[in-house]
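Researcher: Next sequence.
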Amino acid sequence: MSETCCWITAALLFCLVTHSSGQEKNDFYTTVSTLSDLIQTEKEVKASLLYYTKRLKIVQDTVLNFVQDSQPYDDLTSPSDVFDYLKHPVHAFQLIKRMTAGLKTVEAQIKRMRKFDPLINIREMRKQRLLPWDEDFQGLATSLVTLQDIYALDFHELTKGHLHTEIPRNRTIPGRLPLNARDCLNISQVALRQGMYDLAVKWAEQAVAKGRRRRTGFNPQARTGQPSRGRRQEVR
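Model: Next structure:
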């Protein structure tokens, strides 16, 4: 049991060791505690984005009210009819009002949105290193490639989110999130840039396999002869 715990600890620490070229004195996100802080930061970003969508809804409603507010001259087709319509002073007043005060209401809502631009906060968070940089992502991807190579992790299980190895003996650390085809391709590109050509090819093959299974609607249950949920519903 203690041997398993040691292996788990070593594997996790290895995964978390990333080096940011922009921060020579800091190994960013090298501990679980700093990753826990990142989860809290993610919640703040989500809240900011959610509030932004609410503001967008207000702007959308304002714009649609202006655009969809039909006017009597919308149905006028001939220039003479339009001319006769605008000779009426109240009609002229309403048109000028619409294109000044009415349009300014729309402009004001759009300008107000700039104050709630979440990109401002996100850029500041990234500047203060509260959010990871691209270098951190590249570093963690490199660590994952190296971890797979050192412990001979099963590629298929790894793409499903599980750490399975037979070194020094058969064991598995289950995970809850799989890697998709894009993830495998990104890791392959990182391995290629690091000169790990054989591993880059293997990760690319996993990306292709996952992409093919997604396009064909591959169902593992079909290989065992077990009907999928959808097929069971059809039988009923």
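Model: DSSP finds eleven helices and two strands in the chain. The chain has two domains: 32-127, 133-214.
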